[in-house]
Amino acid sequence: MAQMNMIQALNSAMDIMLARDPNVVVLGEDVGYFGGVFRVTDGLQRKYGEHRVLDTPIAEGAIVGAAIGMGVNGLRPVAEVQFADYIYPACDQIFSELARLRYRSSGDFWAPVTIRTPCGGGIRGGQTHSQSPEAIFTHVCGIKVVMPSNPYDAKGLLIASIEDDDPVVFFEPKRLYNGPFDGDANKPAVPWSTHAKGEVPDGYYTVPIGKAEIVRKGSAVTIVTYGTMVYVCEAAAKALGIDAEIIDLRSMVPLDVDTICTSVRKTGRCLIAHEATRFSGFGAELSATIQEECFWDLEAPIQRVAGWDTPYPHAFEWEYFPGQQRVAIGLKAVVEAA
Amino acid sequence: MPRKSRLHIPRHHSRPGEEPDFSYLETSPAGAVARPDVNARARDIGNLAVELVRVLDDDHQAVGPWHPHLDPQELQVGLRHMLLTRIFDERMQRAQRQGKISFYMRSFGEEAVSVAQCMALRPRDMLFPSYRNQGLYIVRGRALVDLMCQLLSNTRDMCKGRQLPVMYHWADGRIFSISGNLTTQFPQAVGWAMAAAIKGEDDIGVSWIGEGSSAEADFHHAMLFASVYMAPVILNVVNNQWAISTFQGFAGGEQRSFAARGPGYGMAGIRVDGNDFLAVHAVTQWAAERARTGAGPTLIEHVTYRGAAHSTSDDPARYRPKDDYEKWPLGDPVERLKNHLIALGEWSEERHAALYKELEQHVSESWKEAVQYGTLSDGPRLNRDLMFQDVFKEMPEHLRKQREQLRAEQGG
């Protein structure tokens, strides 16, 4: 076991897969010589060469399109889109091609592409370096969508994604790269070395796609969340003294409905939290599913806590971000409802 | 012997610790490139896309057919604008290091592109800049305080706190809102120019991207529409050699000039020394007249150098030699215009030093005023309700509700 932050854990996953499988290639803007703007691919080109870790032109559509072609020709590409905010030029290739290739060719063609992309706010990135567009991708049939919240899961899920024969969009909450973040920007940053999930095996292991994790057992309310909001919710529940059961989804597609609904049936109450905008956010899918599956067990309306339905504003980062206060208001509402 | 296919990986000219090597750069002597008629057919002027238009020679004289014969006073104004851009950039970089602003991007080394071009255009021409064209605002006369207030996201921020620093806009000055997403402005400028032609107006559209951004599909879309409709537009590729850490070879510059993509689409393409104020001015005038008189669009490649980091989040020491800018064969745009004016007997080191001091003071006074309207950490703050405005023209009910929720969350 080693201490790793999320950047090192992701790097380790790619390192292991590049070593294990000669068909794995990494491509993206600044990922090669420079090692990525967040250093996630640091050292990989030096180790595996310029034909396996490729710097690309600034063309997200071409990065994904080429990754599909490589995948069809037997490679297992790991493409980086430098910020999730810049993934949109690639969306035709992702939505119309990558997601549907297996379906439209009756399984004769498919491309095992993993698209890594940093998402989320909290780094003063303004409206073009802060977005959480995961729900858009969950709406497209044929791609898996994951978002780890800690180094251990990040490494295991990335290895699982690279090995998966279906395409995976792999969101990395960039505010969590260097440590868990509970939403309080005034507190000193906490490193991953203080957290159990900063303990990461050096070697190969996987975290299965499609399995949620209960990060805290509790009985008063189920909190369904993922990414940065896991820590915000933990802190908010603790501050209120509410015995919350907190579920870190880790995967959105496929969704671990069993874990969610077993918990909600037990607690009878549910709060859903994500950083992304609320309207048509992934919380809407969760809420609908829980209502369908657990209606007779619910003792209160399901609460959703999310980012506001505006672009992510630079000057109002912490007014926009669904911090502990917003979670607390939602928690009180769902716990105190008769 | 049959050869196996093999990927070609573009070579960087030199890496940290190595001697900068710019032998890849193809140049033409100053004055050597012919200046065709503005109505010349694109197919007849393909050489412009390969050669390098230069006016200033090594003795600081202006030579050849592209010599724009500008008044010394106009050159002095150009020098002033470039120097102000540079001093403003330096001061704002420092402000970021001091934690007063969250982010900054300098245009160090590329000042001639924005300044000379903007001076060669008309005030009604519509500009669609990238994030490294601050010289446009300087030339068109936007107060530095206004730019600084945007950088500070303070109570006088033109973007109402919604945009990252440097993502300015100025409707009255006819400068479009800057996007963080690359190249999106290129087809928009073409559409704006098409509208001018549809309306029968002789204003032109002008846009800028970096050479790295020419990789985006929007570049090709813009080129196609511009050439199909012969839109009155100037499309500029500022080839500053670097897209964050990747060298221009990764954008396709190793095989062919970026200007050569113009003829590829059936439109004029010109390669110009982007650090030569006179050459940039002359080429822009030529392209503007061409666009305004219905002879079609022009793609201009400005061969220049990103003298500074990509942004305050970047550390170029990781991927390029530290002294590469000093070794750049096309020199520094401010120094070259200064030396030309001195050679003309219209400038001196003393006047230059005095101007520098005057502009430094102007920047410093502007900053003192700007911070009174608030910074990210101190002073007055924008009203948080502004977050919910302008998502739509009229605020829908769900946003009103969220605005109330935020008020409640923050204690009224």
Descriptive notes:
The complex is a heterodimer of chains A (338) and B (412). Chain A is of the alpha/beta class and 338 residues long. Helices cover 34% and strands 18% of the residues of chain A. In chain A, strand 6, helix 7 and strand 7 form a beta-alpha-beta unit. Chain A is globular and about 60 Å long. The model of chain A has no long low-confidence stretch (mean pLDDT 97). Chain B has 12 helices and 7 strands. At the A-B interface, helix 3 and helix 12 of A face helix 12 of B.
Per the principal axes of the C-alpha atoms, what is the gross shape of chain A? globular
Question: What is the tally of beta strands of chain B?
Answer: 7
Instruction: State the major sheet of chain B.
Output: 5 strands, parallel
SS elements, strand count of chain A:
14
Radius of gyration of chain A: 19 Å
Detail the poorly predicted runs of chain A. none
Strand order of the largest sheet of chain B: 1-2-3-7-6
Please give a handful of descriptors for the protein shown.
heterodimer, A: 338 residues, alpha/beta, seven-stranded mixed beta sheet, 14 strands, B: 412 residues
Topology:
The complex is a heterodimer of chains A (338) and B (412).
Chain A: E1 2-3, H1 6-20, E2 24-28, H2 44-48, E3 53-55, H3 60-72, E4 76-80, H4 91-98, H5 101-104, E5 114-119, H6 134-138, E6 144-146, H7 151-163, E7 168-173, E8 199-200, E9 213-216, E10 221-225, H8 229-240, E11 244-248, E12 251-253, H9 257-267, E13 270-277, H10 282-294, E14 303-307, H11 317-320, H12 324-336
Parallel strand pairs in A: 2-3, 2-4, 4-5, 5-7, 6-7, 10-11, 10-13, 13-14
Antiparallel strand pairs in A: 1-8, 6-12, 9-11
Helix pairs in contact in A: 1-7, 3-4, 8-12, 9-10
Chain B: H1 72-97, H2 111-120, E1 126-128, H3 134-139, H4 144-151, H5 185-199, E2 205-210, H6 217-229, E3 233-239, E4 242-243, E5 246-247, H7 261-264, E6 268-273, H8 277-292, E7 298-303, H9 324-327, H10 333-343, H11 349-372, H12 397-409
